[in-house]
Amino acid sequence: MNEFFPDIKKITYEGKSSRNPLAFKYYDPDEIIDGKKMREHLKFAVSWWHTMCGDGTDMFGVGTADKSWGESYPEARSKARIDAAFEIMDKLSIDYFCFHDRDISPEYGTLAETNARFDAAVDYLAEKMKEYPDKKLLWGTAKAFDHPRYMHGAGTSPSADVFAYAAAQIKHAIDATIRLGGTGYVFWGGREGYETLLNTNYALEQDNMARLLHMAVDYARRKGFTGDFYIEPKPKEPTKHQYDFDAATVLGFLRKYDLFDDFRLNIEANHATLAQHTFQHELRVARENGKFGSIDANQGDPLLGWDTDQFPTNIYDATLCMYEVIKAGGFTNGGLNFDAKARRGSFTPEDIFLSYIAGMDTFALGFKAARALIADGRLDKFTEERYASWNTGIGKKIISGDVGFEELEQYALQRGEVTDSLSSGRQEMLEAIVNNILFSL
Fold first, then answer.
1. DSSP per-residue codes, 19-58
2. Is the dihedral of CA 361, 363, 367, 373 positive or negative?
3. Are 11 and 93 in contact (CB under 8 A)?
4. Average model confidence (pLDDT) for the chain?
5. Is 217 helix (H, G, I), strand (E, B) or coil?
6. Active site (annotated) includes residue 83
7. Which residues neighbour 407 within 8 Å (Cβ) at sequence distance 6 or greater?
8. DSSP string computed for 51-67
């Protein structure tokens, strides 16, 4: 097999003093930390849609990068993409990949023909995984949002026929995920929402989305799937009001429809900021509810109001992200999927590798910084002391349920003004501690 990137050699770790752009400065995949290799802690994954398919097309212009992989016909291109993807993963020491069904193989007219061509591509993908036994599928999903049939949604479409078609497509994507040994299946409601309530049956759409999710879980479990189901929150774009707005909204939906036990959350950094949250906030909400699952690693541009899906280079955000991951006990079935694309002006084959190196080094450094923050202990100690009043006295009685409004009123009347019980939040000091740890690595 010919190499797609003959000028790119295996990317190696050279340390932070290296000036070689095609080398890792912080990510040493085989470094042992707490009994596991760094690659096992971070579980990096290639996103098929951006890396193998995304050519830089945006709403204002055509593509700038050649992602044809030297093939003019869709079937040959699907196979070439698989060959190129495994070369990329091998040279970058990435062990996982994620895909939408139509990233692997496009639509071919009828659903039956599309399924047959998709199955052939999955067959080849399975063969490739045998050739590279260390490469695994992190999660799969169905691309139930880009075709015109899904203009009003898939599971939330006003058309029952569209709902049925989406169910058939999702069934086939689940089958492929199981066959390839995927440990997760993701639902991203790309168009599951509404533009205006003037034409929307809000309650029916929510009910139908829950019906679709129940069907998917029931089917997959019957077929032997033991991995995680994920929902990926996103507040807007392309739909103005999406039903999976943020982590808290999704958790409320799961509780209402008796889906809480079956799903975890796949948190994306750029989606968090679109919801006017921090990345860490969304991870904390998922973690504290026992629903942290996986991560789509990227970042947005604070000067742009849309999902730019940039490769992550913000060390501060990566540190606070990995702080939550470590506190959650690390990844189980999930991982760090780079749902990120090189900028439209970064169009050469080499830019694929430079982008991934930047993102992988960012999270490797963030992981080490997060471990150092936790080992340092000052953040945890400060927070513990700030809430110390809940461990004794009236605070302990409130938590144990030993007092009600009458008792609390009596306490407040006897206690008098309570501003003297407050202490400084010391935000600036704590941020300085984070900086000190970061710059000491």
1. --TTSBSS--TT-EETTEEHHHHH-EEEEHIIIII--S-B
2. positive
3. yes
4. 97
5. helix
6. no
7. 397
8. III--S-BTTB---S--
The rounded distance, in Å, linking the Cα atoms of 269 and 44 is 15
Q: Which of 41, 100, 152, 281 is catalytic?
A: 100
Residue type at 196 in one-letter notation:
T
Q: String of b and e for 389-410 (b: at least 16 CB within 10 Å)?
A: eeeeebeeebeeeebeeeeeee
Kindly state the average pLDDT of the residues 276-289. Answer: 98
Instruction: Name the nearest CA neighbour of 48 among 130, 117, 143, 126.
Output: 143
Query: For residue 380, what are its two tokens?
Result: 């945890």
C-alpha–C-alpha distance, residues 438 and 441, integer Å: 6
Q: Is 10 exposed, middle or buried (0-12, 13-18, 19+ CB in 10 A)?
A: exposed
Helix (H) or strand (E) holding 435: helix 427-439
Q: Is residue 413 classed as helix, strand or coil in its secondary structure?
A: helix
Parallel, antiparallel or unpaired: strands 336-338 and 32-33:
unpaired
pLDDT at 2 exceeding the cut of 90? no
Query: CB-hemisphere CA count at 13 Å for 248?
Result: 7
- pTM to 2 decimal places: 0.97
DSSP state of 311: P
Distance between CA 364 and CA 25 in Å, rounded? 9
Q: Where are the alpha helices (DSSP H) in 332-404?
A: 349-376, 378-386, 393-400
261 is catalytic: no
How far is the C-alpha of 440 from the C-alpha of 7, rounded, in Å? 35
Least confident among 236-245, 246-255, 370-379: 236-245
Provide the pLDDT for residue 189. Answer: 84
Q: What's the token pair of residue 136?
A: 């695994």
Taking only the tens place, the pLDDT of each residue in 9-62 is 999 999 999 999 999 999 999 999 999 999 999 999 999 999 999 999 988 999
Residue pair 77/106 in contact (Cβ under 8 Å)? The answer is no
Do residues 147 and 153 make contact, with C-beta atoms less than 8 angstroms apart?
A: no
The model's pLDDT over 172-202, given as tens digits with 9 standing for 90+, comes to 999 999 999 999 999 998 899 999 999 999 9
Q: Would you give the end-to-end CA distance of the chain in angstroms? A: 42
Cis peptide before 302 (omega within 30 of 0): no
Q: What is the pLDDT of residues 382-429, one digit of tens each?
A: 999 999 999 999 999 999 999 999 999 999 999 999 999 999 999 999
Please check whether residue 226 is in contact with residue 216, taking contact to mean a CB–CB distance below 8 angstroms: no
Catalytic residue among 28, 95, 101, 103: 103
